[in-house]
Design a protein that fits this description.
By secondary structure, this protein is an alpha+beta fold. The protein folds into 2 domains: about 70 residues, no CATH class; about 90 residues, no CATH class. The strands form 2 sheets. Strands 1, 2, 3 and 4 form a 4-stranded mixed β-sheet that branches. Strand 3 and strand 4 form a beta hairpin. The termini are close together. About 5% of the residues are buried.
Length: about 200
């Protein structure tokens, strides 16, 4: 089970490798005109309408959107409420928890490597982490001692599966499957959502 986190660390590493040069060369963002950087004002207005409609339909309480290109901020708007209880409106400088939005960044970096031909989307992850050569599907679980049985999977887990959340690998915390959480705990895998002072490397 520890290999799961090794794989996640591997994907994050791919992302950091792909972004290294761009991070060093990234300009400081400043306000600019959409047409000057090859973007459509009309299409940006569609985004504004879409977000406002979502707020008006109570699909979301509020949001902030920022779009930049070539170092220029061409769209920065706030919509709805930051806090309904205190009647505080959303503003452009409201701070959000990034949470799983990092997945979009990592996925983009991974796809940049795919465009460069570094790997195939249907490559099995065992090509990079041999421990995943023979994946198995949980069959039974013993509540008394957290022991379990598993059936060999008839499919390999691929990079495509990881990017689309279709690998079958469970969190045990977010998905609410207590069996997986207990199996991880018995194997010595620390939940990375913990507040304990532990790194991914230490968990692996």
């Amino acid at each position: 089970m520890k290999s799961l986190y090794a794989l996640l660390l591997f994907l994050c590493t791919l992302g950091s490798i792909a972004q290294t040069n761009s991070l060093k060369q990234s300009p400081v963002l400043s306000d600019g005109d959409a047409s000057a950087v090859g973007m459509s004002e009309e299409r940006l207005k569609r985004i504004e309408t879409m977000l406002q409609d979502a707020v008006d339909a109570n699909q979301i309480p509020g949001t902030v959107a920022l779009i930049a290109r070539k170092g220029k901020i061409v769209f920065h708007r706030s919509f709805g409420m930051a806090d309904n209880a205190s009647n505080k409106k959303m503003s452009n400088d409201v701070i959000f928890r990034i949470a799983s939005q990092s997945k979009a960044i990592t996925s983009t970096a991974v796809m940049m490597l795919w465009e460069e031909g570094k790997f195939r989307l249907d490559d099995p992850i065992s090509k990079y982490i041999p421990e995943f050569e023979t994946p198995a599907v949980l069959e039974s679980f013993n509540e008394a001692d957290s022991s379990f049985t598993a059936t060999p999977s008839d499919k390999k887990i691929t990079i495509r599966h990881l990017l689309t959340h279709t690998s079958g690998l469970g969190y045990g915390v977010i998905d609410g499957d207590e069996r997986i959480r207990k199996i991880y705990a018995k194997a010595g895998v620390t939940d990375l959502y913990t507040t304990k002072d532990i790194t991914i490397e230490q968990s692996i």
